[in-house]
Amino acid sequence: MEVKIIPSSSSFNVLALLLTFLLGISNVQADAPAAKISSKNYTNYLQKACHSTTYPQLCLESLSSYTSTFDTDYLKLCSTALTVTLKAASNTSSLVKALSKQRGLSKTEAGIIKDCIEETGDSIDELKRSLDAFGSLKGSSDIQFQISNIQTWISAAITDENTCTQGFDDRKISDEVMRKIRMEIVIVARLTSNALALINKLSY
Q1: What DSSP element (H or E) covers 190?
Q2: How distant, in Å, are the alpha carbons of 43, 75, 111, 114, 168 from that of 175?
Q3: CB-CB neighbours of 24 under 10 Å
Q4: What single string gives the DSSP state of each residue in 118-159?
Q5: Pair 191, 85: CB distance under 8 Å
Q6: Longest distance between any two alpha carbons in the chain, whole Å
Q7: Minimal CA–CA distance to 128: which of 186, 171, 174, 85?
C-alpha cells in the first residue's frame, strides 16, 4: 500500500500535562548512538505525517513515544493513532463517571454528565470498531470499503465527543464541573480528529 502524505501548516497549542495524564506517556529514550539515529529518523517521519493533521503538535506529542512501534509504516502509524485515541477516550470516560458521583451536583449538572457518559461510551464503541476493522485490513478483498467504514465510525465518534461539550453551552452548569469535563473531552476529540486525518491520507 503506497501512502501519500499531504503537509499542512495548521498548528495549535497542546495541554501537555493533561495529555501525559490521559495517556501515561513516558519520555524515556535509548542511550545507544544507533538507537538515537533511528529514533531521530522515526521522529522526522512522524513530524511529516503529523503535518497533515488538524492539530500537528498534539499529534506529535501523543505519538512520539510510540515511534518504535510503527517505524516508517504508515498503516501501523494510523493503527497506533487509533489505539492512543481509544486509550485516552477510555480514561476520560472513567474520569467523567467519577465526576458523576460527586456530591452537590444540581439536577441539570447530573443530567449533562449522564448524557456525556453515554456519548463517550458511544465514542469508545465506534473507536473499538474502527480499530478492529483496521486489524483486518491486510489481506482484505475490499480495502476501500473497509477504510470507508472506519472513516464513518471515527467521524461518528467525533460527533459524540463534540455533543458532550455542546451540552455545557446549552444548559447552566458550574464552571468547575464544566472545566473538568471539557478539558478531557477536548483532548480526546482532537486526538480522534488527528487519527481521522491520518487515515484520510491512506491511498489504496
Answers
A1: helix 175-200
A2: 38, 41, 16, 17, 10
A3: 10
A4: HHHHHHHHHHHHHHHHHHT-TT-S-HHHHHHHHHHHHHHHHH
A5: yes
A6: 59
A7: 85
For the chain, the C-alpha Rg in angstroms (whole number) is 18
Question: Which grid cell sits at 172?
Answer: 447552566
Residues 110-130: pLDDT tens digits? 888 898 999 999 999 999 999
Q: How many CB atoms lie within 10 A of CB 192?
A: 28
- Residue 26 near residue 17, CB atoms below 8 Å: no
Q: Identify whether the C-beta of residue 111 lies closer than 8 Å to the C-beta of residue 40.
A: no
Contact (CB, 8 A) for 52 and 193: no
Q: Which of 149, 172, 190, 139 is closest to 11 using CA atoms? A: 190
Q: Which of 62, 44, 63, 38 is nearest to 5 (CA)?
A: 44
Lowest mean pLDDT among 75-84, 86-95, 97-106, 194-203: 97-106
| pLDDT tens sequence across 24-76 | 554 444 343 334 446 678 889 999 999 999 999 999 999 999 988 888 889 99
